[in-house]
Amino acid sequence: MNKPANQPKTDAAAITPRSQDYGQWYLDVVKKGSLAEHSPVRGCMVIRPHGYAIWEKMQRELDDRFKATGHENAYFPLFIPLSFLAQEEKHASGFAKECAVITHHRLKAIDGAIVPDPASKLEEPLVVRPTSETIIWAQYKNWIKSYRDLPLLINQWANVVRWEMRTRLFLRTAEFLWQEGHTAHATEAEALEETSKMLEVYADFAENIMAVPVVKGHKTEGERFAGALDTLCIEGMMQDGKALQMGTSHYLGQNFSKGADVKFQNKAGQLEYVYATSWGVSTRLIGALIMTHSDDNGLVLPPRLAPIQVVIVPIYKSDEERARTVAEAKAVAAELKAKGVAVKIDDREGMMPGAKYYEWEGKGVPLRIEIGPKDLEKGSLCIARRFLIEKPGETPDELKRRRKVFLPRAEAIASIVPTLDAMQKELLERARAMRAARTRVIDTIEEYEKFFKGEGGGFAWVHWAGDAAQEEEMAKRFETSIRCIPFPDQIPAEAGGEGKCILTGKPSKSRVLMSKSY
Fold first, then answer.
1. Distance separating alpha carbons of residues 45 and 291, to the nearest angstrom
2. Which of 191, 228, 307, 429 could form an SS bridge with 185, CB 3.0 to 4.6 Å?
3. CA 366 – CA 303 distance, rounded (Å)
């Protein structure tokens, strides 16, 4: 029988409201959604099954896109000889402060303490990979001899370590999961085309799968990847108005091929260095999902990334009712699975239906189907949506009531896939509306100060002709940075044309995107 056991709280008070403390709200959503938790190792996280299932769906979507563009997966060592990292000077200096270094290969008990065995000191220290360019190019030297070996299009799914001092689950951790593409080309034109192509892959994934609108553009020289000649990026806006860099694609020129001495014989029989790119996204994308879509009740997931798209909850008071409602739940689940829907039946005993609703809502499941004895008698199903777009002037109670509908069984089942598709589109529309509401075209430093210090900030389209020192000045005064120098088609019409730099007054041909950021 469906008797209550120890029940969790079933009100939204378990999550700190966004308006009260956005940082704590984020952590509360991660916890309530069973996504991740801190590990005993400072700065590292444990990704729980539900969180990892979201990452797996991201992997599948991205991996299919990578392979459709001709890339293959491989795997390279976690450890990088220190001398390899030093092959590209800017690369080495860019990652120097974040590297974890291994100097010994075994431990020994000395005076009752476990310490590195002095006899096991490595001849050359090893760096735990912060990124893999140098170790990969050491192998490419063996693989690339002729123009016939190019292009070489390789991706790897891996973990990396960057010894961050200030961490936050998913957004910035000492160890994180990611993919990193590393490609080699015969010409600069091919490498530049690859760099642009992979950024478009990321942008398509962000908008059509994650339902997160992004701005595409170039990083400034000071914000480029260490060792790159150009870095392209996609920037999303989170609900607090801050920007999140969601993916990057780097044109590396011949810097790494020269460092590793990777040459090929071209069609004219001459030796020349190959041209390189690298590109990557990480588990930080889960943080982007949380901060773009979730609410004060917990996680909200776009249906295309939800590990469970529909949860079915049988409602019963007796063993006889349990048998009938569970049987119907299994029948409904079978029909939905045949339509390609990811379904779970929650028939756990000793737990009230309300506690189950609370749990699955916190985990972001898009749709819930409730099946009770009265539904069986009427031949109907109750469908509850995780979210709806609010109507102007609608109260929370009115919205809550509108989230549930009772439909005849056949109509209900037929509605599931179209409803999931509609929810996917609505999330993107809602995110675009949120971004538009917090975006300004700004022409004076006074307007800029008012926007970021008085109105909460967001995205600011501003003219810029300053140098690196003046970028730093803006960062100190307003805690903002140039998120990207946008592609021309990314600049809204009202922000087009030439103007004057917001700080220096110098002529500026186009605007940049500025914001506070994670």
1. 18
2. 191
3. 6
SS3 assignment for 360-414: HHHCCCCEEEEECHHHHHHCEEEEEECCCCCCCCCCHHHHHHHCEEEEEHHHHHH
Q: Residue 444 burial by CB count (10 A; 0-12/13-18/19+): exposed, middle or buried?
A: exposed
**Residue 302 carries which DSSP code?**
-
pLDDT in tens, 51-110: 999 999 999 999 999 999 999 999 999 999 999 988 877 787 778 888 999 999 999 999
pLDDT higher than 50, residue 11: no
| Continuous H helices in 254-387 | 255-259, 284-293, 319-338, 353-362, 373-378
Distance of CA 17 to the CA centre of its chain: 23
d(CA 458, CA 452): 7
Helix or strand run (H / E) with residue 104: strand 100-104
Residue 335 has pLDDT above 80, yes or no: yes
Cα distance between residue 400 and residue 262, in whole Å: 62
Please state, in angstroms and rounded to a whole number, the distance separating the CA atoms of residues 402 and 155. Answer: 45
User: 5-9, 375-379, 423-427: lowest mean pLDDT where?
Assistant: 5-9
d(CA 188, CA 197) in angstroms, rounded, equals: 14
- Is residue 425 within 8 Å of 366, Cβ to Cβ? no
Residue 173: both structure tokens together: 């951790």
Q: Is-above-0.70 flag for pTM?
A: yes
Domains of the chain: 22-293 (3.30.930.10), 303-426 (3.40.50.800), 439-515 (3.30.110.30)
Dihedral (CA of 212, 164, 477, 93) sign: negative
Distance (Å, whole) CA 408 – CA 434: 35
Name the token pair of 403: 């989230």
The pLDDT confidence band at residue 417, using thresholds 50, 70 and 90, is: very high
In terms of DSSP bridges, do strands 310-314 and 367-371 run parallel, antiparallel, or are they unpaired? parallel
